Amino acid sequence: MTTTEPSLVVESLRKDFGPVAALDGRMVRVLNGISLTAHRGAVTTLLGSNGAGKSTTLACAQGLLLPDGGTVRLLGTDPASGGSALRSRVGVMLQDGGLPPSVKPMTLLRHVARMYDRPVDVDALAKRLGIDSFAHTTIRRLSGGQRQRVALAASLVGNPEVVFMDEPSAGLDPQSRQTVFELIEELRERGLCIVLTTHLMEDAQRLSDYVYIIDNGRNVAQGTVADLTAEATSATESRTLHFTADPGLPIPRLHDAGSLIEEAAGRYRVEGLHSPAGLTEITSWWSEQGVLPTSISMEPKNLEDVFLDIAQGGTRG
Amino acid sequence: MADPTPSPLPEAPTTGARRSNAASLTTRVVRHGGYETRAMLGNGEQLVLAVALPLLALFGLTFTSILDGVAEHRIDAAAPGVLALCVMSTAFTGQGISTGFDRRYGVLRFLATTPLGRAGLIFGKALAVLAVLVVQVVLIGGVALFLGWRPEPAGIPLGVLLLILGAAAFTSLGLLIAGTVRPEATLAITNLAWILLAAGGGILIPGSRLPGMLSDIVAVLPSSALGDALRETLISGTMNMGAILILLAWTIAAGFAATRWFKWN
Questions:
Q1: Which of the residues A65, A263, B111, B182 has the least number of beta carbons within 10 Å of its own beta carbon?
Q2: Chain A residues with beta carbon closer than 8 angstroms to that of B103
């Protein structure tokens, strides 16, 4: 196997649930043609709102659910028939954690490690994740962030090559979040293939090498964070310009540049810039007013804008 | 400064054939069985159900006249039924409740993603049931021997087989309930069934002693089949083929139903 071969290939995944009583016994199509590819040494993110089909996609990729259509190849194998040999190379962090409440973290982690031939050093891993500080508390009594760290450790004790993380940042306090993010980045550097889901743009933007935006069980956009934001900021689309200058400047009537408003004292925003001519109009106005702005920025769209564009498109369609 | 310690984090191999990192199937099942056994023996409520209540039943049946006439000595009639009750405590009620809550908390789902897998999980649980049963038989059988129990030696091998068959039947039933209803319902159903079957299900007191139609209904229950078959073999060394067939039928039916309808999450 070459190292460039993808660790995970999902093609045209389809999954129906039901029959659902509330829908007169009809089936619900939860996944409707999801496709994705994930490579080693990279973080691949499924971004979507709750109910978009992210967890179901992961469950099919892990072999926990049998798809009704499409194919999954995980480390070159069908996960439904990969057996213990395949499972031993894949770590899973479930959204609800999957942790027994009456057990202490170290008891659980040691037990899970004993299912593997070559586990990692459990004590060192627990220390790295700060679990040693609450090792003698039952899982029931841990905070959300502490539980999340135990679930993360449980997905890593087996020394996996691929790790699935369903909403790894859910319910984390800022400090735990930082710990978890740094850990994910380190795992990427160590050559693991990381597949995670999130509904938070910020997390996707911070962590991902490649993002699949999914909605209603379908792929709606994909690419690197840069690709996705650049694509949305296409040549014909309007941009927003921010600048700061003296407060209280007279607001001009603009022809090419859309509208200018003073958001807060001295902070101005120009919306609806469609062409370089609009920019010229603004700079001419500065020149007339004798204004030299203290800062100017024209930001590309962030992932959130992309997501909102797509969501609005979906509503219109 | 200390030497830089190696990172505890996993590292993906860059060269060479990737091989399985799973412990062998036997190792996994034995280790999970040990883990579940410790969990069951470490749980106070489970111990009440597995040890304290059967002991109370043993004393109650030995020091009252309920079982007079079943065997020459009361203890000989009481002990087999109490061992059958132990099977029901551990395999059905205890196992059912813990599996139900494991399912609720996603523990079954998570462990199914490790090399243990779903089959290993079930085998491990079955192994834990047998291990706890051994502890119960030693403890409660020991107390019964102390109270004067003298089982028919010729009937002991069949008695052991019946305990295992009974464990299989009640584990399947417990898993069927735990895998299909909410854990609170599992708790209620398996506890209520335990009380009803212990009182009037033919497990401690022969079903034939119940009035009229009730005795016919009870005769086909797994509790009555296990109780009657154990009593006959341990009192007189005879094999109650009818009861054994009933128990086998329950095991196959519940095993099939659990395989078919068990929901993992």
A1: A263
A2: none
